[in-house]
Write a structure and sequence with these properties.
The complex is a heterodimer of chains A (559) and B (224).
Chain A: H1 2-17, H2 25-35, E1 69-71, E2 74-76, H3 87-95, H4 102-108, E3 115-117, E4 129-139, E5 163-168, E6 193-197, E7 201-207, E8 217-219, E9 249-254, E10 260-265, H5 270-273, E11 279-285, E12 296-297, E13 301-302, H6 308-313, E14 316-325, H7 327-330, H8 332-335, H9 339-349, E15 359-362, H10 370-373, E16 376-378, E17 383-390, E18 396-400, E19 405-410, E20 413-414, E21 422-423, E22 425-428, E23 433-439, E24 452-457, E25 475-479, H11 502-505, H12 527-558
Parallel strand pairs in A: 4-7, 6-11, 14-17, 16-25
Antiparallel strand pairs in A: 1-2, 3-4, 4-5, 6-12, 7-9, 8-10, 10-11, 13-14, 14-15, 17-23, 18-22, 18-24, 19-20, 19-21, 19-23, 24-25
Chain B: H1 3-14, E1 33-37, E2 40-45, E3 48-51, E4 68-76, E5 89-90, E6 94-97, E7 102-109, E8 115-119, E9 132-136, E10 141-147, E11 153-158, E12 170-175, H2 202-223
Parallel strand pairs in B: 4-7, 6-12
Antiparallel strand pairs in B: 1-2, 2-3, 3-9, 4-5, 7-10, 8-9, 8-11, 11-12
Classes of the chains: A alpha+beta (559), B alpha+beta (224).
C-alpha cells in the first residue's frame, strides 16, 4: 500500500517539476490558446566578473637598457618599447665576446667564446673569421622534484608552453635570480637571429646541452654538403651526418657567397624539433667596409647595431619571427621527466597529421606581451626594413593597418624591381622569408599618417591564444610621438587591464567586461529551474527503485 | 625524523634557488681575474669559474676548521650510462663531511658542454645568495674551496643548466648527520613525482582481478 502512495506522490512531483519550456510544442500551443502566455519572470542577474589584479604593463628599466648608448665603441641605438635587449650583450656580439673588456663581458652574461671574432681577411676594416657557439635550452620543462614547469618563460600572462630553443653560449645559471624559477633574459623564444657577412669564414659550434640529439641545418644559406675536413655539414641525419648527442659538440662551416634572409633549424625529427622552437633567422648581410655586425639578435626584434648596407637605404631594421605552437606537443615535455618516456611521447605518440596550432607568437611572445617588446617604432618619413620569417606550421597572411609595405626580397633573393608593388597583406608559407620595406611617408598609399597601427596575421586563429582574442601575434606600428616615457603606446581604445591577467587567457573573464560591465557578463542561475530539475531527479529515482523492487518481487513469487 | 618533516625539508631544498644572470668568464688575454660582481665573489679563467670561494672565514657557529676534505668529482654523460632514465651524471652524487670542515672540490667536466657543481642554502652572510658555485667548460676542470657551518644539515648540489638537474645532475652535501635525504638524488633517494611505469594492459588486468575476487568471494560466502 505504501508503495502505491509513494508511486503516486513521485508521479505528482514529476508532473509538477517538469519545466514548462520542455513541454511538447503542440501542448504548449494548446495551453497558450487556453490560458495565454505565462507570467513575467525576470532572467537571472549578471554575475560580477572575477576581480583579477593585472600585471604591470610596462616593467621598469632601472639599468637604462632602452637608451641609446656607446659601449665598447659600438653605437647602440635606442630601443624605445618597454623591454629592450641588454646593450652589453649587443656590444659583445658586435665586437666579439673575445674582444671586449671584462666589465662588458660580465654584464653581457655571455661566455668568453660565445662569439669569437678573428682576423680581417679582406682588409676592409671588419673581422671575417667568426666562430659562434650555440647551446640548446629547454624552457617550461617538467621536473621529477618540483611541481610546475621549470626554467619558466611566459609567452603571455600565465601561458607557458614547453619549448626548446637555441641560445648563445652563456655563463651561470639558467634562471634569472635567487627567488624565481624564471628563465634568465637571454634564454627565450625565438632562438636568436644570427647575422654574418657575405664571404665571412663562419664556424658554428653546436654544444648540445639538451638531453636529446640535435643538429644545425642552415636553410637557404650557401654551405657545402661537407666541410673542409670531409665531415657532413648539412645537419640532416638521414643524408649528411650523425646528430650531435647530449653533452657532445659539433661544428658547421660556411662562407656564403650570396646575401639574404635565411633560416636555421634543427633537422632531427624536424616535425617535432623545429616546431618546439629549434629555429631562428639566419641573415647574410652584404659585404661592406668596416661592417661590424651584431652577430646575434636575442629574441629578434629591433637590430640595435645595424649593418652598413642597411644604413645606406633604411633608417632601422626589425627581425620578425613568427611561430605557432601546438599545446598537444609542447605539454609533452611537462608530463614526465624520463627522457625515454618523453621521446616516445613526442616522436611516436604525438601525431602531427592530427594537430592544430594553439598559440601564435611574434618574436617569442603573444599579445599583450608583444606590446612590451615587439612594437615597430618609427618616426615620420622613416624607411624601415622588416626581415620576416614564418617558422610556424600554418601559413600567415601578414597584414598592416595604415600602411602598405613593399616586398623587396623573397627567400633571400631580390625580387625584380618591376614586381615591387605596395600591398597590405602578404602570404608567408611555412619557413618562407620576405624582406619588406615599410615607408612611414604620409602619402595616402604607403602610410596614412602617424598613429598606433596594428599589424597581425589576418588568418583569424593567429590573433588568438588558444582561441581567446585579442591574443596571438598582434602587434603594432607605433609612431614615436604615441609612446610614453616608459615606452608604452598611448592607445585610445579599451583598457588593457584584463589582457594583463592570467584569468582572461584561462577564459574566465567575459571579453567586454572592462567597458560594458554587466551587459555581456556571465549569467546567474535560475534557481526555480534547478529546483524543478532536482524534483524530476528525485521522482525519477523513487519511480525507478519502485519498478526494480516490483520486478524483483515478481521474480521471487515465481520461484 | 618523521617522514612528514623529511618531506618538508626535502621540498625546501628542491626549490630552485639562486641565480646570477649577469656574469662572465675571462678569456686568455686577461688571464685569471678575481672580482666582485652582483655581490658574488668570482674567480674566472677560460675554463670556467668559481663563485663565492671561501678558504678561511669561519661560519659563526664554528670555532675552528674541524677537518680538510679534498674531493674530485667527475661529470658527464658517462656517469649516467648505468642509470636508467638519466642523461647526465656525476661520479659521486653524495658528499659527506663533518660540521665546520673545509671542502675543496675539483670538478672535472668530461663532456663537451658546460656543467656546474653548485651548493645552495649556505649562510648568506658568508656566501652571497647562500651559494657556492663551480662551473667548468666542456673538457675543463675547476677547483674551489668553501667551509660548511656547524649544524647537521643536507644541502642541495646540482647543475643549473636547463634540465641538467632533472636529467641526473642532482646530489646532496650531508654535513654531520644531515637533515634527511633530499628527494631525487640518483642512487640515494627516489623521485618525488615518480611515473607509474605500468605495462599497457595493466588496467584490464586489474579489472579482471577485481571481477575474479568478486566472483570468488560471492561463491565462497554462498557455499558457507
Amino acid at each position: 500500500m505504501t508503495r502505491r502512495w509513494l508511486f503516486i506522490l513521485a508521479l505528482l512531483i514529476a508532473l509538477l517539476s517538469y519545466p514548462t519550456q520542455w513541454y511538447p510544442m503542440p501542448l504548449r500551443l494548446k495551453l497558450t490558446e487556453w490560458f495565454g502566455a505565462a507570467g513575467f519572470r525576470q532572467l537571472p542577474a549578471s554575475l560580477p566578473a572575477e576581480a583579477a589584479e593585472p600585471e604591470i604593463f610596462c616593467p621598469p628599466d632601472p639599468q637604462g637598457w632602452r637608451n641609446s648608448q656607446m659601449i665598447e665603441n659600438v653605437d647602440i641605438i635606442a630601443s624605445t618599447p618597454c623591454v629592450a635587449d641588454n646593450p652589453y650583450t649587443v656590444a659583445a656580439f658586435v665586437r666579439g665576446s673575445n674582444n671586449v673588456s671584462q666589465a662588458t663581458l660580465h654584464k653581457s652574461g655571455l661566455a668568453a667564446d660565445a662569439v669569437e671574432k678573428g682576423r680581417d681577411l679582406d682588409g676592409d676594416g671588419d673581422p671575417d673569421e667568426i666562430h659562434i657557439r650555440l647551446e640548446v635550452a629547454e624552457l617550461n620543462g617538467g621536473s621529477s622534484v618540483v611541481p610546475g614547469p621549470v626554467t619558466q618563460y611566459e609567452i603571455a600572462p600565465g601561458i607557458r608552453p614547453g619549448l626548446w630553443v637555441f641560445a648563445p653560449k652563456l655563463v651561470g645559471m639558467a634562471v634569472e635570480n635567487f627567488e624565481s624559477n624564471q628563465a634568465r633574459r637571454s634564454l627565450r623564444l625565438p632562438s636568436p637571429a644570427i647575422r654574418i657577412e657575405q664571404g665571412d669564414k663562419v664556424r658554428i659550434t653546436l654544444e648540445n646541452t639538451h638531453y636529446m640529439p640535435h643538429t644545425l641545418h642552415l636553410h637557404g644559406a650557401d654551405h657545402g654538403f661537407t666541410d673542409v675536413s670531409g665531415e657532413g655539414n648539412d645537419g640532416v641525419p638521414i643524408t649528411s651526418e650523425m646528430p650531435v648527442m647530449p653533452g657532445a659538440a659539433r661544428s658547421y662551416e660556411l662562407s656564403p657567397r650570396h646575401a639574404g634572409t635565411m633560416f636555421y633549424h634543427c633537422h632531427v625529427q624536424p616535425h617535432v624539433h623545429v616546431m618546439m622552437g629549434l629555429q631562428g633567422l639566419f641573415i647574410v648581410e652584404e659585404n661592406r667596409p668596416d661592417n661590424w655586425l651584431q652577430t646575434m639578435n636575442i629574441g629578434a626584434g629591433l637590430v640595435r647595431a645595424p649593418s652598413r648596407a642597411l644604413r645606406e637605404q633604411y633608417d632601422r631594421e626589425y627581425d620578425l619571427h613568427y611561430l605557432d605552437l601546438d599545446k598537444e606537443l609542447s605539454e609533452r615535455i611537462q608530463d614526465q621527466n624520463d627522457p625515454r618516456l618523453i621521446t616516445r611521447s613526442m616522436h611516436r605518440e604525438y601525431d602531427i597529421t592530427d594537430s592544430a596550432p594553439d598559440y601564435f607568437t611574434l618574436n617569442g611572445r603573444s599579445f599583450p606581451y608583444t606590446f612590451r617588446e615587439s612594437l615597430l617604432v618609427g618616426e615620420d618619413e622613416e624607411r624601415i626594413r622588416l626581415r620576416v620569417v614564418n617558422g610556424g606550421a600554418k601559413g600567415i597572411a601578414l597584414h598592416t593597418h595604415g600602411h602598405k609595405f613593399t616586398a623587396t626580397h623573397r627567400d633571400g633573393v631580390a625580387l625584380p624591381e618591376n614586381t615591387h608593388a605596395p600591398q597590405d597583406v602578404i602570404w608567408l608559407a611555412t619557413s618562407q622569408r620576405v624582406d619588406l620595406a615599410l615607408e612611414l611617408s604620409n602619402d595616402g598609399l604607403h602610410a596614412y599618417g602617424p598613429g598606433i597601427w596594428p599589424f597581425h596575421d589576418h588568418q583569424y586563429n593567429g590573433v588568438t591564444s588558444d582561441g581567446i582574442g585579442p591574443g596571438g601575434n598582434i602587434s603594432a606600428i607605433v609612431y614615436a610621438q604615441y609612446l610614453d616615457e616608459a615606452g608604452w603606446p598611448q592607445t585610445r581604445g579599451v583598457p588593457f587591464d584584463q589582457y594583463f591577467t592570467q584569468a582572461f587567457y584561462r577564459k574566465e573573464i567575459p571579453v567586454w567586461e572592462s567597458y560594458a560591465p554587466g551587459l555581456f557578463s556571465d549569467t546567474g542561475f535560475d534557481w526555480l529551474m534547478l529546483l524543478r530539475v532536482l524534483g524530476l531527479a528525485l521522482a525519477g529515482g523513487v519511480i525507478a527503485a519502485l519498478a526494480v523492487s516490483a520486478l524483483f518481487r515478481r521474480g521471487q513469487g515465481r520461484s | 625524523m618523521k617522514p612528514g618533516s623529511l618531506l618538508v625539508a626535502g621540498l625546501i631544498f628542491l626549490l630552485p634557488l639562486a641565480g646570477f644572470g649577469q656574469s662572465g668568464v675571462d678569456h686568455s688575454k686577461h688571464g685569471v681575474d678575481h672580482s666582485k660582481h652582483g655581490g658574488h665573489q668570482m674567480s674566472l679563467d677560460p675554463g670556467g669559474m668559481v663563485m663565492n670561494q671561501n678558504h678561511d672565514t669561519l661560519p659563526r657557529d664554528c670555532n675552528e676548521i674541524s677537518r680538510d676534505y679534498d674531493f674530485t668529482i667527475h661529470a658527464g654523460r658517462d656517469y649516467a650510462s648505468e642509470v636508467p632514465g638519466m642523461i647526465y651524471g656525476m661520479s659521486q652524487h653524495e658528499v659527506r663531511v663533518q660540521p665546520c670542515s673545509r671542502i675543496t672540490v675539483t670538478f672535472v667536466n668530461e663532456d663537451s658542454v658546460r656543467h656546474q657543481w653548485m651548493v645552495h642554502g649556505l649562510p648568506a652572510y658568508l656566501y652571497p645568495a647562500g651559494m657556492f658555485h663551480i662551473e667548468a667548460s666542456g673538457g675543463h676542470r675547476k677547483t674551489g674551496t668553501f667551509i660548511v657551518p656547524g649544524d647537521d644539515r643536507s644541502y642541495l648540489i646540482h647543475c643549473d643548466m636547463a634540465q641538467h638537474m632533472e636529467k641526473g645532475m642532482r646530489g646532496q652535501l650531508v654535513v654531520g648527520n644531515g637533515s634527511g635525504d633530499l628527494w631525487g638524488v640518483a642512487g640515494i633517494s627516489d623521485e618525488f613525482y615518480r611515473f607509474s611505469y605500468l605495462p599497457v594492459h595493466a588496467a584490464l588486468l586489474a579489472a579482471l582481478v577485481l571481477v575474479f575476487a568478486f566472483l570468488a568471494t560471492f561463491w565462497l560466502t554462498r557455499k558457507r
